[in-house]
Amino acid sequence: MKFDTESTICAIATGSEGAYRGAIRVTGADAVSVAAKAFPNSPESTWTSNGAVRFQETISLDRLGLLPVDIFVWPDSRSYTGQPSVELHCLGNTIVLQSIQARLIECGAVLAQPGEFTLRAFLAGRLDLTQCEAVLGVIHAANDRSLNIALSQLAGGLSQPLSELRRSLVNLLADIEAGLDFVDEDIAFISKSQISDRLASARFVVESLLQQMESRAAQTVQLQVAIVGAPNAGKSSLVNAIAEQNVSIVSSEPGTTRDYVRIRIDLDGVQIDILDTAGIEEADSTTPRGMAQQFTREQIDQADLILYCLSVEDCDDDGDAGAWANSHLLNNPKTQTWLLHTKCDLTKCDLIVGRSANHHRSQHDFMLSTRERASIERLIQALRAWALERQESVNQVVPITAARCQASLTNAIQAIAHAQEATLQSRGDEIIASEIRLALEEIGLVAGTVYTDDILDALFSRFCIGK
């Protein structure tokens, strides 16, 4: 990418579909004089303010006549790009915007490249790389949640912890290297225990950031809820009741569901995928039913929440949950599991729940009957609360940031771990300092304080012109 920051660029900054209002941006050393040339009848004093100003003028366009334009001028570096800038706001008609843009090019501006305004803001230190990626996230946000994630990151939601982490490691490195300068005089600026504590604290922050990057609650990933249980436990009927449509085949014949059925539902703006899986049973892996069991295992491994259906017909006299208590499919401590007592219209379900209360490890119990809508609504409300809590509790980042930063954060963790090991084994402050420098370099790649042309090309080539 060629970093030509001396030219004066312009571009339409609003959408191409047309709207009531539109805007054209101009930035560069000659931005004010270029814009002034487009308005030859405007008094020169209007353009010579020492601070930001706003005023209205008219522009004469061929075949369009005189049109009013609101003009915003930032004559110094206190602008988005860190350069003198002008914005022209007018009717959002595409022909009008293109005509004004053409006039600015005639007056000495050049058409901006995709992402060039934000690139100049980055090079001027107005934004770091994670905030530039957040700008791109705002531009392409497909829903409210995507927009909120991008806005949070743009406001420094990721930059602040990265900045504090770098500052902490830089200070630690300075303390260690200060001791190296006085090694012959036996002066210790920092103890080994202090080094260990500060390295442990830094590692915790980096590991938290990496977990944040790897979170499945990114823009393009929905929460996965798997409905599992023995054959004929009422899973398909439950899916149909939640979706309020017939999406799964319901039959009294066990093993009807051979594959999994997926339905996406919206819960107050949070989308979740409900999966109806094949009934858990022992089956030859070469048969269709055995293949269905493999699909079920895969979906359980990927699920964010498991709803285990236990029909009241399958509860024995001891109240044991049968396959529930012994299933090797449900031993993942990272995944929540809720126990759903299904077909409760057939017997006194509350007695069964009471007897089996001490025989399972679910976080929630529900007594359900697809013939009683109130019980289904209680489950839906619980799913809604769980989904909203899950979304709120997860540290979120724009997906492009996550994709770029995971390897660097992993390398930073390894470098800090090596520094911890060197401290523990008293290998010398020189070794510890060198590992901290490696960690700082990797963290710099994440924050954008260290970057390459390839990184900038990969990011700004995805922008649209005018941003």
Key structural traits:
Rossmann fold, Four Helix Bundle (Hemerythrin (Met), subunit A), six-stranded mixed beta sheet, flat, alpha/beta
Task: Please specify the SSE layout and strand pairing.
Layout: E1 9-12, E2 19-27, H1 31-37, E3 53-61, E4 65-74, E5 85-92, H2 94-106, E6 110-111, H3 116-123, H4 129-139, H5 144-154, H6 159-181, H7 192-214, E7 223-229, H8 235-243, E8 261-267, E9 270-276, H9 288-302, E10 305-311, H10 323-326, E11 336-342, H11 349-356, E12 364-367, H12 373-393, H13 399-424, H14 429-447, H15 453-460
Parallel strand pairs: 1-6, 7-9, 7-10, 10-11, 11-12
Antiparallel strand pairs: 1-2, 2-5, 3-4, 4-5, 8-9
Helix pairs in contact: 4-5, 6-7, 6-14, 7-13, 13-14
Question: Can you describe this structure?
Answer:
The protein is α/β, with parallel strands linked by helices and about 475 residues long. The chain folds into 3 domains: about 10-125, 2-Layer Sandwich (Gyrase A, domain 2); about 160-215 and about 395-450, tRNA modification GTPase MnmE domain 2 (Four Helix Bundle (Hemerythrin (Met), subunit A)), CATH 1.20.120.430; about 225-395, P-loop containing nucleotide triphosphate hydrolases (Rossmann fold). Helices cover about 45% and strands about 15% of the residues. The chain has 15 helices and 12 strands. The strands form 2 sheets. The chain has a 6-stranded mixed sheet with strand order 3-4-5-2-1-6, covered by helices on one side. It is flat, with a radius of gyration of 31 Å. The two termini are about 15 Å apart.
